[in-house]
Amino acid sequence: MSDHKITDVAALEAIYGLPRAASLTKEVDRLLPVYRRFVEAAPFCALATSGPEGLDVSPRGDATGFITVEDDKTLYLPDRAGNNRVDSLRNVIRDPRIALLFLIPGIGETFRINGTAEVLVDPALLERFAVEGKKPRSVLKITIETVFFQCSRAIVRSDLWNPEKHVARGDLPSAGQILQAVSKEAFDGAAYDEALPKRVAETLY
């Protein structure tokens, strides 16, 4: 099997060839107006970070346009209530490199931004991003390095936005069932699931 392992870029390029011109042209170093519309339309993105303990990718979502475009090189991403693991923020403090993958319901193309980030706790900035009187505990300031869109093939192949393909929640283990299983019964899964909807509603922000 070792003879079939690709170990250098030249061998990889011999298989895949070179990217098409459009694949290179679409990458720019700032948020052009045509790209800004994707950020403003997105209710969800995945945030990828790297730190001494390894890699992390974390979901981020809120009302459409929850990531604010400050200018063509700067974004602000408020950190809403979560599980307090703060894996992404720990990573950013030690390695500022980040990547964002935006998903927009109904749209085939995804949108990607690479850059660096810093964790800010300026009171005026936190107040600016308050929702229902609740301020985020920090805000990520993202400095853009590269911007580009990804073609729709992955979304088309997965049929991601087709409601007929939605998986019924009961077909997969619940949060409580997962915790009960991985904790070797230390968690009461049924009690956790019963309390979860109310807890989520009360701590959304």
UniProtKB/TrEMBL annotation:
InterPro entries: Pyridox_Oxase_FMN-dep (IPR024029), Pyridox_Oxase_N (IPR011576), Split_barrel_FMN-bd (IPR012349). It holds the Pfam family PNPOx_N. It comes from the Bacteria. Residues 34-151 form the Pyridoxamine 5'-phosphate oxidase N-terminal domain. NCBIfam families: PPOX_FMN_DR2398. This is Pyridoxamine 5'-phosphate oxidase family protein.
